[in-house]
Amino acid sequence: FSQQLSLFTQYRENLTILNPAAVGSNYLTNEENLTFGATHRVQWQGIEGSPTTSTLRGDYLFDSGSSVSLLTGGYLINDQTGPTGFTGLYGRVGGLLSDDPVYGGISLGLTFGLVQYRVNASEIRLREQGDVLGVDDQTTIYPDVGVGLFAYTLLDGGFFDDDYLYGGISVPQVFGLDLTFTGQNGEFFTQRVQHMYAMVGLYKFLRDESFLEPSLWVKYAPNAPVNLDFNLRYQ
User: Fold this and answer.
1) Across the strands, what pairs with 151?
2) Are strands 68-81 and 52-62 parallel, antiparallel or unpaired?
3) Are 23 and 203 in contact (CB under 8 A)?
4) What does the alpha-carbon distance between residue 93 and residue 48 come to, in Å, rounded to a whole number?
5) Per-residue pLDDT of the chain (235 residues; tens, 9 = 90+)
6) Which residues contact 101 (CB under 8 A, 6 or more apart)?
7) What is the secondary structure of 132-187 as a DSSP string?
8) Backbone angles phi, psi at 136, to 5 degrees
9) Cα–Cα distance list, 115 to 10, 54, 86, 175, 180 (Å)
10) Which end of the chain, N or C, is less surrounded by CB atoms within 10 Å?
11) Distance CA 193, CA 157 (A)
């Protein structure tokens, strides 16, 4: 058993994928409003068929000088777990409500895209030889939408002076898709359920321009235990 959505480690680099309303980490740490990145991850090293995830992403914060700044970008993701996998292309758009994004703000964002789900039927272990979908590989294309809310602030005074506190909630897959693949030998059925994320973190800047980032990522899906992922990052 495994998760239905891709799992990321050191997710500071993937914050805008997990929450479409998030302000990119490069802006919070270096005030860089344009960023590109790529990641590749094998989840369970040495175990055949373990989840393998690759992403290409880009993000841009357009500060127009008004009270609402545009968040935009997109990403390409490819995920393969055993005989099942998906490839998705997403766009991202959002609005950041703030008089000056350097000092903080609150944002709402959406992702929208198309996802190709696939089943390599020849790799599925069947109950009996010749059981359903024992021969036919299947692919299906579905639309996908994600939504998120994000807020951050530049702290003022005391030990945390000029540090950033951030947090957000998101549903990266709004549609709970019922995927049915029909072939000559019958049907293969799987249901994808909504996952709900919450995260909170702090950038504690140090004198030598490095920083510490403690953060907490809470993941919930129906009929599954709540998962807490605590990270402590030094850069």
Assistant:
1) 106, 167
2) antiparallel
3) no
4) 37
5) 556 777 776 566 788 999 999 998 889 998 999 999 998 988 888 888 888 999 999 999 998 888 999 999 999 999 998 888 899 999 999 999 999 999 999 999 999 999 998 887 767 666 666 555 555 677 788 899 999 999 999 999 889 999 999 999 999 888 777 777 665 556 666 777 888 999 999 999 998 889 999 999 999 988 888 999 899 999 8
6) 23, 27, 61, 63, 69
7) TTSS--EEEEEEEEEEEEEEEEE--SGGGTT-EEEEEEEES--S--EEEEEETTEE
8) -85, 125
9) 24, 14, 7, 12, 15
10) N
11) 43
Per DSSP, the three-state class of 28 is helix
The two structure tokens encoding residue 95: 């609005």
User: Which of 112, 130, 124 shows the shortest CA–CA distance to 189?
Assistant: 124
CA distance 196 to 168: 11
